[in-house]
Amino acid sequence: MTNDNTLPMKKSSSFRNFFRKPAVRSIASSLISILAGILVGFLVLLCINPAEAPSAFINMLKFPFINQTSIASIFYNCAPILMTGLAVAFCFKAGSFNIGGSGQFLAGATCAFVPAIMFHAPWYLCLLCAVVGGGIVGSIPGLLKAYFNVNEVLSAIMINWIMQFSFYMICQSNTSIFVENGLTSKVSNVSPESILPTWGMESVSSNFTIGFFLACIIALIISFLIEKTTFGFEIKACGLNKDAAKYAGINEKKNIILAFTIAGILAGIGGAIYILMPASANSGLDVKYTAVPGQGFDGISVALLANNNPLGCIFSAFFIQYLTYSGTGLGSGFTHKVPSLIVGIIVYFASFVALINILLEKGIIKKPKKRTLKKKEVSVKTEEVK
Amino acid sequence: MADEQNKIKEISNTAVSSLNDKEENNYIVEMLNITKIFPGIIANDNITLQLKKGEIHALLGENGAGKSTLMSILFGLNTPENGVIKLNGKEVKIKGPNDATKLGIGMVHQHFMLVDCFTGLENIILGSEPADKLGVIHTSKARKEIEGLCKHYSFNVDLNLKIQDMPVGMQQKIEILKMLYRKNDILIFDEPTAVLTPQEIDELMNSFRELIKEGKTILFISHKLNEIMAVSDRVSVLRKGKLIGTVNTKDTDPRSLSKMMVGREVQLVVQKKPAEPKEPIFSVRDLVVHSSVKHKDVVKHVSFDVRKGEITCLAGIEGNGQTELIYALTGLVKQKSGHIFLRNITAANQVIEIDHYSVKKRNESGMAHIPEDRHKHGLILDFDLQSNMVLERFYKPPFSHYGLISKSKIRNYSDHIISDYDVRSGKGSSSSVREMSGGNQQKALVGREIDRGCPLMIACQPTRGLDVGAIESIHKKIVEIRDEGKGVLLLSLELEEVMNLSDRILVMYEGEIVADLNPKEITLDELGLYMSGAKKMDIKPIKDELIANSTLSKAIVTDGDKTMTDEKSSPKKLGPKEKLLISGLDSELKKLSFEKFNSQNNAKKEDK
Hints:
The structure holds 2 protein chains of 2 kinds. Chain A is mainly α. Chain A folds into 2 domains: 1-52 and 333-386, no CATH class; 68-304, no CATH class. Chain A has helices at 2-20, 22-48, 53-62, 68-93, 101-119, 123-148, 152-173, 175-178, 187-190, 211-228, 230-240, 242-247, 252-275, 295-305, 310-326, 338-350, 353-385, and strands at 179-180, 183-184. In chain A, α2 (22-48) runs antiparallel to α16, α5 (101-119) runs parallel beside α7 (152-173) and α10 packs across α11 (230-240). The two termini of chain A are 15 Å apart. By secondary structure, chain B is an alpha/beta fold. Chain B is built from 22 helices and 22 strands. In chain B, the strands form 5 sheets. Chain B has a 6-stranded mixed sheet with strand order 6-7-8-3-9-10, with helices on both faces. Chains A and B meet through α11, α12 and α17 of A and α1, α11, α12 and β18 of B.
């Protein structure tokens, strides 16, 4: 009797055990939520224009793969939002919400842009300037939080705008060299030595640079920092329980400042990667003062989608950039705002990762034990009857 | 497998036989074959608990034995995997506290569920407000009713007082009134006496007896055997999720109860030699701590010494400044004024003033601290157990080298604490602390602090929420470190622990030390009088050379600088470095402090 019972149970339990691993579960939940988003996006598309929806939707998903240039475009555009995503994820680990990615991004971009245009500085020097600029701007909300208990969300938003206006002011100070058609002038035209090196990748596509790989390496470093070092231990301890961190002698003020500074550096590098791109890769930043750049907010989606895992950010950044880019392939049957709507829906659903993770956990972990127990109970009861 | 089944069979058989012994109609509540499983642990394994109408039923068990789980199942906070709950012989499904309330089941949680900024009356009617159709609340009728209840049970409660201004005993009465107002007949108490003074415990026990007369049924959880013996009619004992048995209180005694609970003989009285106090290791002088929450000084000019080889106990009712005092001593909160010294740690006559030390520096100077609130301060619940075991030491070898954490070393160390202190958890070192039972969290925490081997141990409620078995082993460890010649400052709200474990009792009342007692010479009642402020001893302020030292006078004299006079310099104005002084410290610091002091004094002279 027992043999009959245990055999099928074992099979299902090994399957469930596989799903019980947290890593497997979080990947599964990401995939499920993305699929749900794609499904709902398609349904919305059906409502708007039933006739063209299926073909347009497939075109849209296929669009980024039609040629090397478009694939390359996803790669280089995903590097900046990967960096801002890391900036957000790192602060989340320290228990703070970094909404200042845009300001830090802009600080890095400005600090890389100005020396490149004015002094024709080599790319590594521009990158270094971006690190310094991003770090300084990033540290401000951390300092305010640590010493004056100012809410970091509030101060970071203010700094976003301060940076936007400073950027505008700097660009307007000498429009002949900084501005071109309402955008920042192209670094590649003025100072080719400031463009990130391609290391032979230009044969694949003219816009391939080391930007994406640089960002991936930084993501690896951040992951290492968080998981393997005492500094990461402190950051996580502060993020999870501030009081216990204080009790353990961890200087939580130091850590909050450092977390924001590092976040600033990360987003700043993102800004530099964006601005030091080849001419065909992007059109530069808008020189205006009515809106802050979107990369900082994209970073929040990247971090949330990756559940604040630095390595996960690589994939989520790529995914979001892929969707953004594929939106342009939707075709003429739809008005120009529809692609953004569909992309928005998919990203929105993708942010249900945490919820689906919990549902999976409940569904997978609790059920099997119930079953084994019932069987035990049944056997006990039958024995009693005997 | 077969073994397990036999066991289950055995237990279910005993349950069945006990069921047959008495008439089923007698029972008001029956929980039959309840099983509840949490990941990695079976909290309740086929437990059958039956309550007779009008009895006081005690539930006794070790930490993590499943008592609270069982009660939360009865109150609808947890759903069992298996089992039936019957009320007056009818099967019921309890899906939430609201269902429980409707069925007449009320519960007083260990941590009261009251709204602090509401008055007693508001708290009692909360959730069943006497409102009319428009949603306007009419309290007058409710007030009359509740006042009637107070009179009937002779509860001395001020309904207009806000909860935050009430003593704990009164808060508990509000909780009881809440249940009575809802006409609950089955009252569950989760460790009701944990926070009360002996007088309040007596009152509560009397209330229990009154309530029984009215036909209520009481089920209470307790670790304290003497209370159970005094008030209960029957006792059910749980061990490791299983029901060991239900016995009539009059047929048993504390010794056999504790044996049932732990599964072995337990020493109920702490076994220790008389203390051999040596030189002081820790001195506090004239300490004042201001609370920004309460907007007043909560510790007022407290001075005392902790000596090596002695367990000095701070006793007092919760909220009399002990917590804040400990915060200041351990560096979590900055004191308003006063001095804290570590003495004779590495060398004789060495004095370090640690007022301005960071928590980290205090830790490194030789202070271990078992915090009162293990969830707030002691542990990071979302970390795994092994990370928590090195919370204060992760940055030092062998746990890390050059800033890189060594997971394997941490794991080894954590395994060692787990086996030494009998920490039980689902997945050993890698289990999430959040999923561990409170008692095991505490054991891990105490193990971590004792294992650091610091010469001074500040232990705040080290046995909070632990069962007799675990209490015994932790008391043993504390006595052990005392006998090794270390200093122990104990903060405890459990009077038995105060009386049993300590060698010297300092009673705190309203932020002051009102008595310095020898536990061998006083009775429990006397201690209660001091704690409630009814009695006060004349404590002479300690006058010694420590405060004078902290102004650097000694260093200057020993340095042979006769031209300097420091009598006028105020200790409060000196920076941290100067305070770090006196004999036995490294010369560079001395030099540094001396130079700074010089310049300061010169500046003063110039001012004049």
